[in-house]
Amino acid sequence: MSKNKKIVSAVIVSSVLLSGCGLLGGEKKEKIDPPQSVTYTDDGTSVETTGKEAGENEAVESSLMTELYLVDKNGYVVPQTVALPKTNSVAKQALEHLVQNGPVTEMLPNGFAAVIPSDTSISVDIKDKVAVVDFSKEFKNYKPEDEMKILQSVTWTLTQFDSIDSVRLKLNGHELTEMPVNGTPISDNLTRANGINLDTSDVADVTNTKAVTVYYLGGEEGNYYYVPITRRVSNSTDNNIVAAVNELVKGPSYTSNLVSDFLPDVKLLEEPKVEDGKVTLNFNESVYGSFEEKIISQHLLSTLVLSLTEQTGIESVAVTVNGEADLVNEEGDKLTEPVTRPENVNTGSF
Predict the structure, then answer these.
(1) pTM of this prediction?
(2) Cα–Cα nearest to 189, from 230, 219, 160, 151
(3) Of 75-79, 108-112, 120-124, minimum mean pLDDT range
(4) What are the sequence ranges of the domains in the chain?
(5) N or C: where does the chain have the smaller number of CB atoms within 10 Å of the terminal CB?
(6) Number of helices and strands in the chain (H, E)
(7) CA separation for the pair 62, 59 (Å, rounded)
(8) Angle separating helix axes 298-308 and 240-250, nearest 10 degrees
(9) Burial class for 324, CB neighbours closer than 10 Å (0-12, 13-18, 19+)
């Protein structure tokens, strides 16, 4: 399992389906490089703008859509996307927005909280795609039960950037091999492979299992957001795509306060087909859910795309039912193209 950092292609279907609800956005994620003074089009050519157009472009280019991994009222670490000023130190800026009572305070959606203790100073040094984060002594002022949340929040916030694949932590210049309050061990390099919101409720022995991250719905009617959950599945499951679909159909734990749009009798009719980054899934008609017409739930498709594009090499998802691609979304638009992962998740709260 790994994050997918591919640039989202301009697919009309996916932008209508995934961006329209405000939960997912299609803005391009920036690398950790100083912003350039020249404006480029998608094909790399430079353009000159004047008047109103230049003003609009300047406003857009002065901010960077950034995912901050915050903690919701149920204790889940959840990405929330916010526009931050462009800076030469976007990684450091992102972490500073995870500090309690810091600059993120006025941006927090209801029920969400930052995870790093107040007054913590942070430095970030990036080399060979490894971000070394050095916290000040105030970092130790957290509750023991928040230890894993802090590790996950810091790791997933930093690894959204193309220039960072893994994270190492320091406290006052000294390398951390375990967290300072409750002693949670820290691997040499923290990555997304370590998981997020770990759910081992149905696993008696994790020894012969592997991690699969899927997305469920959190929040409530009118204010849903997508929550990544890392489940453990048997090592005997050869196909990680099938494993992810099975976990989506299985649904979240009954005690989780999360929900899913997948009905329990949804099934894949054949092995997924992967070609050039696109996975094609052939479902039975139960994937339509409660709709009378051949309509795919927006939330079902969104959680499917988010879950599968967490896996290495998967860039887009095409859905068929009984081998046919005659499907539409809730807006009535035909799903004639595979759906790509957006660069920003949970944009509606800001």
Answers:
(1) 0.82
(2) 151
(3) 108-112
(4) 61-193, 198-345
(5) C
(6) 6, 17
(7) 5
(8) 140
(9) exposed
- What are the tens digits of pLDDT across the range 16-52? 334 334 455 544 344 444 334 333 333 333 344 444 4
Are the C-beta atoms of 83 and 142 separated by less than 8 Å? no
Q: Which two tokens stand for residue 347?
A: 């944009």
Give me the DSSP letters along 164-192.
-SEEEEEETTEEPSB-TTT--B--SSB-G
How far is it, in rounded angstroms, from Cα 87 to Cα 281?
41
Residue 264 backbone class (left: φ over 0; alpha: ψ -120 to 50; beta: rest): alpha
Give CA 186 to chain center in angstroms: 22
Query: 69: closest CA among 200, 244, 257, 196?
Result: 196
Write the secondary structure of 77-123 as one string of H (helix), E (strand) and C (coil). Answer: EEEEEEEEECCCCHHHHHHHCCECCCCCHHHCCCCCECCECCCCCEE
Instruction: Kindly list the distances between the CA atom of residue 288 and the CA atoms of 30, 69, 215, 225, in Å, as whole numbers in the listed order.
Output: 36, 32, 19, 21
Q: Encode pLDDT of 241-298 as tens digits.
A: 999 999 999 999 998 999 999 999 999 999 999 999 999 999 999 999 766 678 899 9
The tokens for 298 are 């927006």
Q: How many CB atoms lie within 10 A of CB 72?
A: 19
Cα of first residue to Cα of last residue in the chain, in angstroms, is 29
